[in-house]
Amino acid sequence: MEELGNSHWMTPKTSKIKDLLSFDRELSKTNLIIGTDEAGRGPGAGPVYAAAVYFPNYNKELEASLEELNDSKKLTPNKREKLFDIIKSNSIYSINSISAEEIDKINILQASLNAMKKSCEDVLSQIKNPQNPKILVDGKIKIRNTNIEQQTIVKGDSTSASIAAASILAKVARDTFMIALAKEYPQYGWEQNKGYLTKAHLKAIKEHGITKWHRKSFLKNYIQGCSFSQKKLKLD
Length: 236
Prior knowledge:
This protein has 2 domains: about 1-180, Ribonuclease H-like superfamily/Ribonuclease H (Nucleotidyltransferase, domain 5); about 185-235, no CATH class. It contains 10 helices and 5 strands. The chain has helices spanning about 1-25, 60-65, 75-90, 100-105, 110-125, 160-180, 190-195, 200-210, 215-225, 230-235, and strands spanning about 30-40, 50-55, 90-100, 135-140, 150-155. The chain has a 5-stranded mixed sheet with strand order 3-2-1-4-5, sandwiched between helices. A hairpin with an 8-residue loop joins strand 1 and strand 2 (about 50-55). Helix 3 (about 75-90) packs across helix 6 and helix 4 packs across helix 5. The longest helix has 26 residues, at about 1-25. Mean pLDDT is about 90; it is low at about 1-15 and about 225-235.
């Protein structure tokens, strides 16, 4: 019984990469497949990131290299960082970000879509004579202002290899940026919360005000409920 239990535990890991690659491989029979995803829609500080990934070859070598590929949210930071380099070395990719200031101007949804659009366009520009490109977009909403064929996929990062890969590139790139930014603004704990509005982060905002890296549109109600002055908020 113990041996059966171990075999059953190993199956999801082994079959996941096969399923992810199989999904993209089937679509690639008629289209050039680019997967895209974003990271950082929810935090109250920092940019939103997006990535796009195109795998030129769906072979056994790629399958072996990406054995642990999965939705970035289901992976440990160490596994994401390991896969980050593996994905880059096996794909044509692009990573882009939209600033907090721009998020406040156009809203987080449009900012996320813009970052995905830029990433997909960057990938296409690196491919010689792309034939019938199709973008696989994680979620329900298509990228705007593009003539490229698109397919939205709910839970795409658990369905498509290229979307799962894009989710990891975007997540690791954003986390790395926020950890570096935390050295300049240590009071907000960004190396831990990555900009999400935890209790400790909100307490720090109340004590120290906000920075140019905070999304003011996300904090409007909280700011109005606090007693500190506009000067202390550093609204620059």
